[in-house]
Amino acid sequence: MGNSYAGQLRTTRFEEVLHNSIEASLRSNTVVPRPVFSQLYLETEQPLAHDGRTENDDEDDEEGSESNSPPIPYQMKPPPEGSCTTDGFCQAGRDLRLSSLASDPFDVPTGFMLVGVKSPSLPETLLVCAVDRRFLPDERGHNALLGFSGNCMGCGEKGFRYFTEFSNHINLKLSTQPKKQKHLKYHLYRNNQGLLVKGAPIFWRGHDSRMRRIGSSLLEGHVTSDEQPPNITLTHPPHTPGSYTGPHVDPTGLPQIAEVPHSLTNGNHAVPSSITQPPLNQSGPGRPSATVPHANNGPPKKRHKGWSPESSANSLPESAVKTPPSSSTLSTLPVSSAITNGVRSETAAPLSSLQGSLTPLSPPGLSVTIPDQLLHTCRLQPVIFKGHGPLPQLTGNVSEVLVSSLLQSCYLSSQTLPRVYQHYGPSPIQPLSTEMQILLTVYYLVQLGPDQVPLIEDLEQIFMRSWRESHLSEIRQYQQPQTTATQGRHYGIETLSTLPGLPQHLSLPPHSQQPLTPSQLPWLAQLAASSCGESVVVVGEHIGSLAQGIQQTFSKLMDRRLENTNYVVIIVTTPGQETQSCVIVTGKHQCRALAESMWSPNEGLKEINHQLSTGVAQELIHYCNSLGQDGDMDSLLDSATIDSNEPSPMSSSQESSEERSLKTTHSPKDTQGSKDSPGPKEGAPSPKDTCSEYSVDWREVRPIQLAVARKLLSHVCAIADSSTQNLDLGSFDRVSFLILVPPSEVTFQQTVLHLWSSGVLQELGGLDQECLSQREAERYVVKMDQSAQQRIDSLIQEAHSNSYTLYILVHDHAHRDINSASCSSSDGSLGLVDQLLNSRQVRDAPNILILHVTSFPFALQTQYTRISPYNEIHWPSAFSNDVDLYHERTRYFGVSELLESTRSGSSLPLMRCDSSFESMVAALEERFPKLHSAVIRTTVLIQHYCVALMAASGRISGSHNLHKHTSVETLEIVQSLLTAAQQCPAHHGHMVLLRIPSPALASWAQRRLSRVRRQLGLEESFEIIMGNPNQTLNIGQSFTDQIKKWLKIQDADWVPRTYLELEALPCILILSGAEPLGESLPRSLKYCDLRVISCSYLQRTTLEQELGLAAYLVKAESRPPHNPGPGSDQLESDAEKLSSTDNEEEEGQENGDSPLSSSQQLQSCPDSGAADPFPAQSTTSPNVQRGTVDSIKSPSPSQTQPQPASQTFSYPQPALQHQIQPHVQSYSQPQHVSQLQPHPQIQSQNQPLSQTTSQPYTQTPHPPPQPHPPAQSRRQHSKSTSSGSLSPRASSPHLSCSWARGVSRPPSVLLPRALYDIITASDSSGLPRCTSFLPHMSVAWASSFRPLLSKMMTCTEQSLYYRQWTVPRSYHMDSSNRTEGRSDNFHPRRLLLSGPPQVGKTGAYLHFLGILSRMLIRLMEVDIYDEEDINYCAQAEGVQYHPSNARWPSPDIMKTMPFDYTIHDPKYDDISSVYCPEYKPSAEGNPLRQEDVYLRRRTSRIKLSKYAAYNTYHHCEQCHQYLGFNPRYQMYESTLHAFTFTHLLLGEEIQLYFIIPKSKEHYFSFSQPGGQLESMRLPLTSDWSPDCIKSPIFTPTTGRHEHGLFNLYHAMDGASHLHILVVKEYEMAVYKKYWPNHIMLVLPTVFNGAGIGAAHFLIKELSYHNLELERSRRLEGGGPAGDVWPFIILADDSCVMWNTVDLDSRSGSVEHAVSLKQVLQHMEAFPDLANYGLCGIRKWSSRGLTGNPKREPFSRGHLHDFLLLNVDRSQNVQYDQNRFTCHDVDFTLRLHSAGLLVCRFNTFSVMKKQIAIGGYRTFIIKTKMTDVPTSVGPSQYVCAPDSKHLFLATPAQLLLEKYLQHTSQKLFPLSTKNYTHPVLSVDCYVNLGTEVTVCFVSSRPHSVNISTTGLLFSGLLLCFADSFVTPGFLKKFTFLKGATLCVIGADRSSLRQTVGRLELEEEWRFRLSDEFQTANAKEDRPLFFLTGKHI
Questions:
Q1: Which residue among 834, 991, 1155, 1550 is least crowded, i.e. fewest CB within 10 A of its CB?
Q2: Rounded distance, CA 61 to CA 52, Å?
Q3: Rounded to the nearest 5°, which phi and psi values hold at 960?
Q4: pLDDT per residue over 1766-1789, tens digit each?
């Protein structure tokens, strides 16, 4: 029974509690008594200190109840007799202390955990016990079962079921009732050494941050977090309207502060419970906790087993409606910051649902008359939220009341269960009841602060949390099998994380067992509302209808009885009818905010325009102009204008230091006198005034941009590679693009500038950089306004007519206009994107690809999105664990980093709000209820700027009085602006961005500021720029000249057109427009003033868009901005950086919110001096002198290490307390002293803070502190003295450019209070609060039952989250994108690039366009062998046999032409030259070439023509059918056919296989359909068709199934042709897979290891055999036999394009691409073709035609690569089937010697593509022992017969050929480099290496040979000599003495026979040792050869 639960009845006597409550209220006049029920059902809470311990654990544990009732006494049961009672030991006497048991091994039962127990008697150690993990909470404080189950780890006793019993056993000796929550403190775990150590604290709900120790005060205490709990800090509340001072605090409360011992936690003092608190009506603390009594009289007196308020149907414990800021955003929770969930000054729901209708929804007869003069009387316009039931009809003065259906839609969506639960069996899961919703709504309204506006999303989350907790077990039971399978970890429905509005420890009222009844509802609601005074009024009893309640409310409003009421909740519970409700908002602030949020942004702007144009705002402007007793602004300015010629008195160096200190005390301004306003002469610096630090680098492409561009390219390639055929990259030869930008002139010019300077246009269009002007680039960028229509239409037409161009439409800033074209606005500016980009023409054009680029992709990620999740590219993170992944020189600082800086305890307060500005606005909003808040805020802000300018200029006499009429923030901005330019010799300065969304207000602000600037004579100091999206940039001439000088621009007409070009210009940029439109800001942006932006539209896109203006690329040389180290650039501020903020009550809240220990905080700002204990308000007397604070010195220079806390806080605190006393009345409660200042106001050593003298400033690392005005928080940071920071350049103020320093520091951002509080709050997942808002106005949540976004989500997961949980509204362009029956409607050619604002997306996509173009060109280009012919004789004969323009060769002339034996093909420059008497070799010979040199041969990149041959990677519409890949066709079926023929040479039958696709069977004849293959059909010679090629094309190939160029569709220009791939048997399957529609000829198995010779041999023999078969078939059919076409084509598999030479009379010969069809048809049409044995064409070379204009059109010589072979005439000449190399040289020589005509058509050339993969030359020589290639030298290719040699697994013929090629100089020593004495080679050509010349002769009778008369040979080569070689034939030739003989045979016996038969021993001497064999094993049939010498 020893468990304690939230909701336990702390005392049984209700009367006692009531009495105590009343007594407490009587004692204090400032405290509203705590409601009775909140004392009855309290939870015990304490603030945790930073180490996880509660601060006063031991004392607090014993203090008992927190109400004023006495604690319940607890008496422990006496221990059994004889048992041990020693502390730290169990009753069995075993030691339990962690210190003793740390190293002991424990046997912990399954399901149990070791836990540390806290004993009050042993504070220094923990006791070890094991507890069943089911009874412990998880890491978020959830899911602990009630009860206890534990074991003693000392004696091992098990099964303790009650904690009371267990605490007795382990001798806890408690004076209060034992509770597991109080005493089970820590998890225990074993460390690396195996020792048991204390681990994380156990997160008990309600005990993790017990903060309600504030006595009976009603301080809002539920400040919980998942990380570190915050502490309470007393600060003064916001100003009440009408006065500028906080409420006076009872001075009696103050001494208590001094007496409290300072228990320092997180650098803050915990505030004791006795401190008093201002009354509620002073808008001080948050509302008290709303408590809910039980529906009956409370829990049972004795608790039954299992009773707990969380499960009991009878109890409704305190509702979890409090919404505390999470500690990650608030390190100190000031009393006055009741912004528990962040100030909700607006509603986050979309506007459409806010447009409440005033149409009657009620039964007739019930109507409400709205009284006249309602607005005038109450000074507000009430807002009625429709709730449950129909709203009565409103009549009368209806224009003064607003109706919103927002709440109603929230109720409805929270009652619509998701489908997954609806189909869940007999589901016990029910939605929230109407009564529960109303009650939760009341709770929510009760806890809202006085300045907060209800936020429907918060309420929705509260509903969801309540629903989930009541159905926890069912959801979990349902989800377990589901979650992993369906949604993964993030998208499960159940997310029990804490809600932003709900502390973890608060339980929600259960309602599943016994629902709340309508009769209980009104009084429970009233009870809840009673706790907050009059703020929420519940009208529920004695009314019979909503109409009656509303009428009553209006009456009270008119009677001024609801002055202090913000909300009236009307509940109607009539028996037998549905409960009805509505909420009327009656708070002034809330009504204004809700009313403004009901306008759409455009309507809001129109209203502002109306107010300005009708003069309504004039009264406000006049009111602001008055400075009270200090006079009127205009008159002060007039006096300044008169005095402006006189020198400013403050520039006098004689001014006494007293006066100086007095002035600096009064006025926080940089008093450098006339330097601030140089005259025109000073304004133009002399040529020597240059700044060495200035550089502009926004043009360069950064590594991360290259990475993103490559990611984009890979996505485009992925679309092309997918099987969907949506993008055929291979068919495009160029890229064109159009960039669509928002209708902003600056964005347009900025994109043009980036495009022009990127070089993309030069790449794409081949335009010359010099002649390309920026105007040229404007053709590629279009603004999305009415002009875009025409441009896109023309692009669509262009795309239609240019199908070979890929058009990229880049839609930049894609989140801007996503309206549906059908709902477009009247002016036509919206809906354009939908109209243009989603049109059918764009969608269906196969050559248009759309790239959406945006920083805020959420609106494009809905359930109906057009963009596939696979086509999203997210900007990668440049840093991972602080490692720079891309070696960037910059670090991006964006929205998340800004938010991080507010809560990291950082010394960089980058985001803040300005409370004195906010308080003035609040007062004026009350005074002018009819004016739009934007008008009021802008007027006040501009007023502040004007006054600050007057104060800082020093031209107004008595300017020291002016600073109280502006805020410190504004003054600091203006001073920074004025002084920065003075510190740089080139006058570089900063930009201040002033964001004013309304163009009308912005132009008024510009006029006002310009006038003040003119009157103060500051025209040359800084520029005021109007940033209107519709206008071009307009800069004064003098400033333009300055920029031109900085950028070194010579062009006289140049003017800046983008903000980027304003780098370093001191200026105020007033940026107007409803939203930023993608304008980039320069790096000199120092302040981003967003104080005027609207707080009405709370969508994630809207908020992040505004914050994105401050996004920044920080130089990465400095440390990351959020964690600056000592002495880093980040710590260096500027002279004008005066003060901290004057946010009175958020000192700790604004920055540095997550509490660090004091030493950590010091580390981030090591030189911090004293913090300001009391920042002054704007009305504080300026004459207060500082005492102690000013005397605190900065740490000494040596202290660059983080200092211990004692040093920092060493000043006497009591003195400070006393010093504060006299002034306390002015500023409410003082700040606690030790809290570090949020702003790092660092003073660098070279810039005195308020240097007023013109004396040189002494360089010391730490200047003596100067006196400061009270409006500033004093703080100094010393510069670290590390090397570099004291460089000579920085030693003098005149040599330091503050612009250069500012580049490494992101800009500061000023926000409206309401937004600041929302943005800096976090939700339970640790994400910023704003991320859980609706992502965009035009989308809606798909369901209320959605999880929250998780902090761990990647961008991809976030995208999937939005795709699952958001739907487009009806006016969203994607709302129509849904087709029934389809799972997705993604557009296949759409990409989405998302990345944070200002990160460099433009540069990335421009680079992408460049590399895409390069890739297309690369796809359209191939590497072609481009080599000059070799071995041309220098003295070539000048005989011209044929005229240059001859179409065909004449056989007669060809016979007279000498045959050119010399090999000219450059691929053969590593072989033996063939002896030819006419040829004279050049002296130097050919350079020695390496074996695999084809990888390094000379190539050229040539663009593919439209007649190219392609490999398998090419896909296009035209050739899909040809390839057999088109999805519309069946994959081509093929059949395997055997074909047998006999050949004498092979001595056996050869069986080949044909694989014939069904579509190609007509090329063959069969014995019957589907029967035996008989022959391949051949045409007749007389046949001719313009679309047909007669010759079958054979392409032998190996290893190139992907890369071989077998797609001849385009090369043939669509002509019908027969193409046969000749493949090896083992490659048959893979070739068939890649080329299913091609005919394959499969070589026999024995040829698997053969070379190219075997393939050509079989092709030729098969073709001859087939020719005979066809002739006989024709004879049988009665036709002429001799007329069958006898030619075949032998083509290499790398022939890619063909060219022809045209003879042009003017330019000589011109070569251009032609189709293969044209080449073949021309050759086939040659009338005398039958006379030729072999024809071929030239190999292309880029220099092939130069130097020889009268080249012979036909020649006789060697042919390679592409041959037209007459198989009939060449019947008796075969290819050598054994050859691996030079088989074509050998064949041509034998063909010529056989007397056949060989002709090369020189007018045609073939281009060969370099293919590094496969081919017949890629044989690897490896050993037989292993498959691994080993380096074997050529000398090892042969060995002596029968020797034990390393055998090689390589064909014998190849080994022999390679041996002869590489070692011939040893074999034929006399032949080396001896052309005139060649080696005689009989009947075959063999390559003997480059140094040996071979003379080919044929032994056949009647053969044609060269004349060898008189020729002496240096060697003889007989290779497989046949019977035609006789001794008589050999005797014709003469040999040199010592010439070498080499006889090659198949075995040793045939060698001997050859030697004997040819009588060789007569003339040649042989030795036994001269016999060799190839290094093959016997089974591999080695070849043998014998060498001998000539006698």
A1: 1550
A2: 15
A3: -65, -20
A4: 999 999 999 999 999 999 999 999
